[in-house]
Specification:
Beta-Lactamase, 43% helix, 7 domains, 6-stranded antiparallel beta sheet, 754 residues, 20 helices, alpha+beta, 5-stranded antiparallel beta sheet
């Protein structure tokens, strides 16, 4: 054995095992601690060939190289390498060994095994921690430093070197650091160290530094003092480049100030709700919206009183969805200010998340009461404009000269029979203009663009369905800096107006022809001025060439026959008072001094006219009056002749009736006498003929009396059934002669006498 029992016990206590390899005997001897380290049963025979199985693959090459060198030259070794125990557990082993040589040949190797797994793990953990600290330092931009007063030595971390833009070869010393501090910075740091020394607490300060590249930066320095027996033994601290942070803070300050000014100008406030507390925070402008002072602190309870129930449900639901579903929102709701004024508010909210969890909801608050009222008013005006446009048939349009875009109103689309969303591109414009109108339309459009003069013209257009229509265009150019940027105007379908105008012209022509053919004179009297006017082409009966086309109505009365002046004046008054048309006939003096019969028709214009007038039509009816007088005279003569004829016929009928009565009487006497059948038949025929002639004479007498108006009717009761029977008896013989049957019956309900 190469160790005493005491040495062995010490090694066992310290976890050190021993081993020996007798090369000549090819034998291995391990101590019990060595067996324990490799988790092998103590006393188990081992051979050199077992050694590779107890080393990891990573250590095989290293240890084999060391052993070969020891066998060759007898060089001792001291290495740490990984190994694998008999149970397969990976451990770290410190292996120390020496070679025993005889002459130039190694005869024995012996050494120590120590399980340094914990030590290696601690070193590895320490290295990982160092690397992690360096990475964290790099990520957060915080470097470290320490100062040993005893050695007057300063140590900087990599991040500290990066902050000051120095390389790894730079050695920080109190002298070299002076070049990296801006004027006054060393005094600030000295004061911070003094505070840390006095209070025993870490001290923080900020100062300006100058990097090795000459760049000025802002540095935050935190230091801690380690003391022993009242003496400073070590200074440690951190360094952080906060240049960007301070720049951002200054920018943020300016931004906040700008946002506050913008908020005041735009009247848009801000708010936030922190989660999970739900505590709201308002900006100054939001307080102003709710008419609260700057000291007002909003709470959920107060806010619930400022919102209507529907608004509270809407806002609560929006914030809840933003918090739970990360869903932004844009809502409008009704609220009441602290002074009781009703307002319409718009709020836009957005969730702020950290690691997938909403930590707060932020948003804006805007009073849109006036805006919504204006929009409602604008919609009413738009609706009114659309209704007026539809009723009047006038549409609007605009053409952007720069973008070549055209916009049509719904009425223009209706006029040209296109879809509800159609706006014609520039190349489609000619499709809606008739070929014969395209040149004039292009010329007017060019003048409007170049000269800026408004234009109005009517032209024939084509609808999308190919229908020809007449369109009235009124437009002008909008100019900016002397150049036309936009054309805008109105479009109206005047096809019906054109047709009505043509029809009116036709009617006017017909009326003119009719008036001339009928020799009518049209005139008017202005009731306000009393002036009477007429058409120069058809002057009034009394108007001479020297009178022109007008005179006062009172002067016109002088040309009317004195006997007819009251009639004419009364007719005028009736028309004015009753507002009904009237017809009269008067005599008017012609320029040659004779009186002519004039038929006058007059009426009053509409009461809605600007100035009420009497419209009259005069016609010379002198020839008609003369003809009527001749007709009346001739009719009277004819009636007198007819009356004389009737009287003659009546007298002659009476003269003939007397002898006829005698004839009828004699024939009746003859029929009562006894005569042969032949004579009786002749007498009956003669009596019948005489009676027929008597009936004719009675009819002639009745007709004469009617014509001479001497027939008198008598009202007396008579038997209706008897009259009917007599009529049947009177005409029965005539009916039988014609092989007809004549019969009559009177219902029992008819009275006997009437």
């Amino acid at each position: 054995m190469f160790a005493t029992s005491l040495d062995q016990e010490i090694r066992n206590l310290t976890g050190i095992g021993t081993w020996e390899w007798n090369i000549e005997k090819e034998s291995m001897v391990w101590s019990s601690e060595a067996y324990r380290i490799f988790e092998i049963d103590v006393g188990k025979p081992l051979a050199p060939s077992d050694m590779p199985h107890l080393r990891s693959h990573a250590a095989n090459g290293v240890e084999a190289k060391v052993l070969r060198e020891a066998l060759r030259s007898g060089r001792p070794w001291n290495i740490v390498h990984p190994a694998v125990t008999a149970s397969g557990r990976e451990i770290w082993i410190r292996s120390t060994g020496r070679a025993e040589r005889t002459g130039d040949r190694t005869v024995r190797l012996f050494g120590l095994f120590q399980d340094v797994t914990d030590e290696q793990n601690a070193k590895a953990e320490l290295e990982r921690s160092r690397i992690l600290l360096e990475e964290m330092s790099l990520l957060c931009g915080v470097g470290g430093w320490e100062y040993d007063p005893a050695l007057n030595r300063i140590h900087w971390s990599k991040e500290t070197r990066r902050i000051h833009e120095v390389g790894d070869a730079f050695e920080p010393t109190p002298e070299s650091l002076r070049t990296l501090f801006a004027p006054g910075a060393l005094d600030i740091q000295a004061a911070s160290v003094l505070r840390a020394t006095t209070t025993g607490l870490p001290s923080e300060c900020e100062y300006d530094a100058v990097t090795a590249k000459g760049r000025t930066i802002r540095v935050r320095n935190v230091c801690r003092v380690e003391q022993s027996e009242g003496r400073v033994t070590r200074l440690v601290g951190t360094v952080q480049d906060i240049t960007r942070q301070r720049d951002l803070e200054r920018t943020l300050g300016r931004t906040e100030s700008l946002l506050e000014e913008i908020s005041q100008l735009t009247r848009v406030g801000g708010w936030e709700v922190s989660l999970p507390s739900g505590d709201p925070v308002w900006t100054t402008q939001t307080r102003r919206i709710f008419e609260a002072d700057d000291s007002f602190e909003p709470t959920s309870e107060v806010i619930s009183k400022l919102l209507t129930p529907e608004a509270l449900d809407l806002v609560s639901s929006a914030i809840r969805d933003a918090a739970q579903l990360a869903r932004p929102f844009n809502v409008e709701f009704d609220a009441v200010t602290l002074r009781g004024n009703a307002v319409r508010l718009r709020s836009i909210g957005h969730p702020e998340q950290v690691d997938g969890r909403t930590v707060r909801v932020v948003g804006t608050m805007e009073d849109v009461t006036a805006q919504r009222k204006a929009e409602a008013e604008h919609r009413r005006y738009e609706l009114l404009h659309e209704q007026v446009s539809r009723l009047s048939g006038i549409g609007g349009w605009e053409f952007d000269v720069r973008t070549q875009e055209t916009i049509w109103s719904p009425q223009v689309r209706k006029i040209f029979e296109v879809g509800e969303t159609y706006n014609p591109p520039l190349e489609d414009h000619p499709k809606f203009v008739a070929p014969e109108s395209s040149e004039a339309a292009a010329l007017l459009r060019k003048q409007a663009v170049e000269q800026g003069v408004p234009a109005e013209f009517e032209f024939q257009a084509l609808t999308a369905n190919g229908r020809r229509i007449w369109v009235r265009h009124i437009f002008q150019a909008e100019r900016v800096n002397g150049r036309a940027t936009r054309l805008f105007g109105t479009t109206q379908d005047v096809t019906a107006e054109r047709e009505a105008k043509a029809e009116l012209e036709l009617l006017h022509t017909r009326l003119k022809v009719a008036i001339e053919a009928a020799e009518l004179r049209v005139w008017e009297i202005d009731l306000e001025t009393g002036v009477m006017r007429w058409d120069s082409h058809m002057p009034l009966t009394f108007a001479g060439p020297e009178m022109g086309q007008a005179l006062h109505a009172s002067a016109g009365l002088d040309f009317i026959h004195p006997e007819d002046r009251d009639t004419f004046a009364q007719q005028v008054n009736e028309v004015v008072l009753s507002d009904l048309p009237s017809v009269s006939r008067v005599r008017a003096r012609a320029p040659d001094g004779t009186f002519r019969y004039i038929e006058i028709r007059m009426c009053l214009t509409s009461k809605y006219a600007d100035r009420r007038k009497i419209i009259g039509v005069s016609r010379d009816v002198t020839r008609e009056v003369t003809l009527n007088e001749d007709l009346v005279r001739k009719q009277r003569e004819a009636e007198e002749a007819s009356l004389a004829k009737s009287q003659f016929v009546a007298r002659m009928s009476h003269e003939i009736r007397t002898p006829m009565s005698g004839v009828i009487g004699m024939l009746e006497v003859l029929l009562r006498a006894e005569v042969d059948q032949a004579k009786r038949s002749h007498a009956i025929t003669a009596l019948k003929s005489a009676r027929d002639l008597m009936s004719v004479l009675d009819d002639i007498i009745d007709a004469s009396q009617l014509e001479s108006r001497h027939l008198s009717l008598e009202r007396a009761p008579f038997s209706l059934s008897t009259v009917v029977s007599d009529i049947v008896a009177l005409f029965g013989a005539l009916a039988r002669d014609k092989s007809l049957a004549l019969a009559a019956s009177v219902e029992a309900s008819v009275p006997e006498w009437v």
